[in-house]
Amino acid sequence: MAESTVRVSGIVLSSLMFQHVNGDSDVEGLILGESQFEEQISISDSQAEHIHIEEIYNIQKHISCLKLNEFYDAVGDVNIDAVKKILADNKEEDVIGWYRQRRNSEQQMTFREKVVHEKLKTTLCNPHMIFVLLTPSRSTPTGSTHKMEYAAFTSRSRIFVNIPVLVRNLGLLESPAYWKPSAPCSAGGYRLATSRHSSKFFSSNGLLRDVNDVNAMSDALQEELQGACRKLEESERLVESLQSDVLTLRRKVHEKKSEGGPVVQRDQVLHQAFRSLFCSPVFHTHTLTLMALPVPDAMTTAPEAPSPPCRKRLKETPGGRDRKSNPSE
Q1: Rounded to whole angstroms, how far apart are CA atoms 53 and 4?
Q2: Partner of 299 at 20 to 30 A CA spacing, among 85, 142, 278, 291?
Q3: Is the CB of residue 128 less than 8 Å from the CB of residue 97?
C-alpha cells in the first residue's frame, strides 16, 4: 500500500491561517493542486530489490466559500452546480480535497465531515482526496497570540487515517527538491502574461536563455577537465612504469652483489696483499754500489767523518831564523 504525504508551501498555509484569524466564524473551501505517485527502488545486501511507492498531494492554492454549507446540504449531499460555481474558471480535475477551519476544537473529523468527504469523492469521481483541518486557539487571554494546529486526513475503505503534512520552505528543502517542476497554474491571466513575455526569457527548448549559456560553459569546462584528467592519468601511469623499472634494476644489482660475494672478498685480499708488498723496503729506492748491490742502510745513513783540525802557521822568528821544517818534507 502506498504511503501518503501532503506537501504545502509556507505561503499557502500562511494565507489559510491569516484568512481564518481575521474572520469571525468558521471557514471552509476547496483545495486545488495535484496528486502523483513516486516510486523508489532500493537494493540492499539483505534484500535484492525493494519498491517503495509514495502518494504525494501538492497543495497549490485554496478557494474559500462565502458561507458555510455552500456546496452541500444538511444531510451531506454535494451539489455539483455549487461546486462549479465556487471553482469559476478552475477545472474540476484540479480539486484534490477540501478544508475546514474550526475554532477551539480537537483535531478530529466529525461524522458530518466524513459523510461530506465520501460524497465529494463520488461526485467529482476522484478516489484520492484529502481533508485538511485547521484548529486555531488562543494562547493568551488577550488574544494577542494564537496557536494554529493543522492536520490532513484521507479515507481508505471508509477508514479515515491521519497523513503527515510537510511544509516546504526554502530553508528546509533538500537539493533535489529544487529540480522538481511544479504543476502548471490554470489561471487565465497567468497564462496570458507568461505567453506574452516568455519569448524574451525562454528559448525554444523551454529553458531560460541564460541557462543555455551556462550549460554550454559547463560542457566546455567538463571537456577541459576530462582532458586534464586524461593527461594526469597518463603521467601517473608513466611514473608507475618508471618506478617499476627502477625497482627491477635495484633488485638485479642487489642480486649481483649477493651472488659475487666471494669474488669481492678475493679482490679485497689481493688488494691487501699488493698493498703490503709495495710497502716493503725492498721496493723502495736504494743506493747501489759499483757491483749493483744495494748499500746497507747503516752505510747510507752513517754520519760524515769530521774534518782534520787545521794547524796554526808558525810565526817567523826574529833574526832571520829558519822556520821549523815540516816532518813530511
Answers
A1: 9
A2: 278
A3: no
What share of the chain in percent tops pLDDT 70?
71
**Grid coordinates of 20:** 481564518
**How much of the chain is in helix, strand and coil states, percent to nearest 5?**
40, 25, 35
Mean pLDDT of the chain: 76
Please state the pTM of the whole predicted model.
0.50
What letters, b where the CB count within 10 A reaches 16 and e where it falls short, cover 153-164? Answer: bbbeeeebeebe
pLDDT in tens, 76-98: 888 888 888 888 888 888 889 99
Report pLDDT digits (tens) over 2-17: 678 888 888 888 888 8
The DSSP result for 218-235, as a single string, is HHHHHHHHHHHHHHHHHH
- Helices marked H in the chain — which ranges? 10-21, 80-87, 111-124, 188-201, 209-259, 261-278, 297-300
Pairing of strands 27-42, 159-163: unpaired
| One-letter amino acid of 98 | W
Closest among 153, 161, 115 to 135, alpha carbons compared: 153
Nearest to 195 by CA among 187, 89, 60, 87: 187
Beta partners for residue 162, in sequence order: 153
Q: Which of 213, 110, 198, 89 is nearest to 153 (CA)?
A: 110
